Structures are given as structure tokens and as C-alpha cells.
Amino acid sequence: MKPATRYTKSGRINIAYQVFGSGPIDLVYIPGWVSNIDWMWACPELVDFLGELAKIARVILFDKRGTGLSDRVVELSTIEERMDDIRAVMDAVDSERAVLFGHSEGGSVSALFAATYPDRTISLITFGIFAKRRYASDYPWAPTDEERQAVYDMIEHSWGSGDMNLESLAPSKANDKAFMDWLANYFRSGASPSAALVLTKMNTQVDIVKVLGSIKVPTLLMQRTDDIDVKIEEGRFIEERIPDARLVEFSGNDHLFWVGNTKEVLDEMRSFISSVNPVQNYEERLYTILGARACGKPLTAKAEESVKKYVHQYRGRIIAFNEEGFISTFEGPSKATHASIEIVKSLRRYNLPVSVGIHIREGAVDESHFVSKTTQRFIDLILDYGGPNQILITQGVKYLLSGAGLNMSLSKTTIDPVNEEPLALFSVIDSLDEAVNDELRPLSNSPKNDSFIENVLQCIDEHLGNESFGVEMLCREIGVSERQLQRKLKAITNKSPNQLISSVRLHRAKELILAGKLNIAEIAYQTGFSNPSYFSKCFKKEFGTSPSIFTQQAQQS
């Protein structure tokens, strides 16, 4: 029986999740590419697999932002934001620690989460994962640019149809029409063609190779030897780089874990889960370190106040501050980079230029309170190359910023003082902000969240019932020009401002229908539609069904 679908907030984004099972530990399943947690229950093979997991664990399913039942308004997200979604769902169900089970592309975010939050991760289990999705001489199993372009073309022209070559994901089911029809519907219900395309392009840029060595939790890697989608050499490559990881190779060529020799897969998972003795406290974890150096003028008390504001806004921690500069730590590179952009802008108002360096590295848990000599030496090296108002990041940071809407270009190549290997430094700017080199506008009085899109969503939410709310008012409250708003939203969500406002209203309306406390006309008025019939027309266009039919389906589920 399908469990109830619930929602929790990750920032301002609604994340759909389900919980079921009676086992003594928690297991969070992180799906690959796109998903739809309701449609999972229409596949008997997947239902059987999940049912077996539920005997040994409390199983937690969720749709990442932009897919499935979660908010579709953000169709472009970073791997770090998806990591935040895992944490938000775990918090919502009071899960302090869990086994992470990542499939395919879901393995990337699982690996980053395990390295960043080892004390919230019991163990890591993966199936058919990759470390890179773009060909390189040191990773020759990933698709070439030409092969990825063919995937882009397929999504754009054949999304969800028989031309998707879905048989390559489950060759053992190629002649099972019912299963293949379900799989096509699963993908179509998991993402729109534009969302799937943006997500696929973002995944092409992800590279977690530098993260692998920082994973200290017990790790089980599983893969079928003749998997067409992800080569077995990729699994072996990952096993070599995660300390004490174990790779189990199964016969067969299915990329989906819930078809083929599933009993062997389940037996391996049961044995691994039962044998792990969780480490209570880890001594090291993955950090993003931000260091800044004043350029010519000492930092003032006002500068310190401004720096603290943005560091705290992006969930960072200041661990050293003086008139010559400061150092802070963050949970991920996206937060650190966006905080640095805001800090540089803010300090320019006081004519206090700084250079900023950002690096991701493994450090002692206590390093959130102090800076080790190794970290200080590394930050000094980066800042020696930085100029006034320049932000430099290392290559490891760059790889994890895919989808962040930033422009990054190679600035310098030097030598890593720790391992004496070549170290590439990249200059980063907010490529969507036309005001970086102009007179900066005053800060908006609206409370800020972790990202531009979340500020936009908050503003729309605050005016949800105001039918006259539109692009002009949104621009005024966010503090950007209409042209800037158009460019940013197109890059981040692939929607125009008006489309986004309408989409947010309709998704909130869907939530109100699921709550079951108001009739359709009342919901229309509360979400900014003065005409219920026009609301019904817009709702059907957005979700493929009328509000009345959706209400009936919600009552029956």
C-alpha cells in the first residue's frame, strides 16, 4: 500500500517525501536523475524491492527539487542544494542518522553528504554510480561531449517516447511492454522535457573525484558488470579512492537495481547493513574554507558587521577576523561562493576592497573553531594570487558549483603546497549580475535567504493572494531591474517572471487542495486568481488535470 506523501521545506522549496517500514534503522533512498515517489508504487518490481527494505529499515523516499512531486519551480539546482534536501527530509522525520542508498546520479549527492555530514551518516550504499559524467583522459569511461549532445537531443525531441532507448537501462525487461510503458511514464511524470534537459546538462559538469577520499563512513558499492549506462571500470575507480570501500560486482547488464538478479542485491544490502557498527563520532569531515585579505585598507567595525551578516545568512561560521582579513567555514562551496559575492559587493560600498580565496578540504571537526597551519598556508597561497575584489576558487570547488549560475574562468595555475601537484585557480563572478562593476544598488529591506531564487519565491509567497502582484512589484521588492530578473530566472528556472509567479501560485493551490480544508473557488482566490474558471484552466495546463479531478484523486489516495 502506497504510503502518504508529505512535504517539508528545504529553504523555500517544498520537498515531497514518504516514510514506511518498521526496521530499527533509517535508510534514505536517493534516486538517480529524475523520480516520482507516487509512480514508484505503480511498478510491482520496485514495490517488491522497497517492501523487502522496509523489513530491515524505516525507508525514507523523496523527490529532489525540480522533479516528481517536489516544487518544479526550480529546474536547475546544485549538488549542494540537493544535499540540503536530504538533510531537510531527515530533519522532518526526526532521523538523526541514516544509511544513504544512492542510485546512479543520486550517488554523487550521497557521496558529498557522507563526506560533509559523517555524523549523520551510518553508512553509504550505492548502485551504478559514477564520479564524472564527462570524458577525460584520467576518466575515459564517461561519455564524450558528442555522446552527451546526443542525449540532449533525445530529451528535447523524444522525451518519454519509445525513442529514448530506455531498454539500455533494463535490458532484461526490454520485451516487457508493461514495464517499459511504466518506465516511460515514470520519467515523464518525474520531469518536464526542459527540466530533464537542464538537469542532464548540469550533471554533465559534476565531478566528485576530489570528494571520494574524504568519505570515511562504511561504504558498499554495487554494480552489474556489463552495465551499459555506467561502466564497471567506474565502480572500480571509485572503490580505489574511498577508504575501505567494498565493490560487489553482479552479473548482468541492468542499470536499474530493482530488475534482474534483485535477490542477490537485497542479500548483499541486508548483510552489509546488519554488519555495520556505526562510528559514534568522526574526527574529520569535509569543509569549504573561505579566506579573505584586505587590499590596502584595514577592515573596519562596519566591515566586520557586514561580513558577519552574510556569513551567517549562508550558514557559515567566522573563525578568525581582524583588520587584515578573515577566515570562515561553510557546509558547501555554493554557500561559500555566494556569500563571498555578497561580501565583496558590500565592502565595496565602504571602499574596502578584499581578495577572496575558496577551497574545499578535509579537516578536523574542531576546525570549525580554529584554522590549522595547513589550511592557513593553503589560503595564503590562493590569496597571494588574488587581486582587489577578486574571488578565486580551486578546481575542486568549481566542479561542485555546476548549476550555481556563476561564470568561472581559469586565472592561475600553481603548485599545491600539500601534495606538490598542479593547482588550478579559477576566477568567479556572478555572471547574471549586471551591477557587479557598476554603482551597486542599496540592499533591499526584505529578509534574505540562501539564494536569489529563494528570495524571489519568498516575495511571491508574501503576495500570494494579491491578484495585482506582478513583475514590476517583484522587481522593486527584490531590488533588481526587469531585465536582470528576466535573465536570472530564465537561467535558473527556464521560466519567465510571469510564468514563475503563475507556477508558484498553482503549486501552492495544489498544496491547499491536498490539505482538503477549502473548496476550489476559495483556493483560487487565496492564490491570486480572481476568476475560478481561469484558475481551473491554468491548473489543468500546469498539472495535466483539472482541480476537481485532482481533488477526487487526492481524496482517494
UniProtKB/TrEMBL annotation:
One of its GO terms (molecular function) is DNA-binding transcription factor activity. This is Pimeloyl-ACP methyl ester carboxylesterase. It comes from Roseivirga pacifica. InterPro entries: AB_hydrolase, AB_hydrolase_1, AB_hydrolase_fold, Homeodomain-like_sf, HTH_AraC, HTH_AraC-typ_CS, Nucleotide_cyclase, Tscrpt_reg_AraC-type_HTH. PANTHER family: BIFUNCTIONAL LIPASE_ADENYLATE CYCLASE LIPJ, HYDROLASE, ALPHA/BETA FOLD FAMILY PROTEIN. Keywords: DNA-binding, Transcription, Transcription regulation. Residues 454-553 form the HTH araC/xylS-type domain. The keyword Cytoplasm does not apply. The keyword Transmembrane helix does not apply.
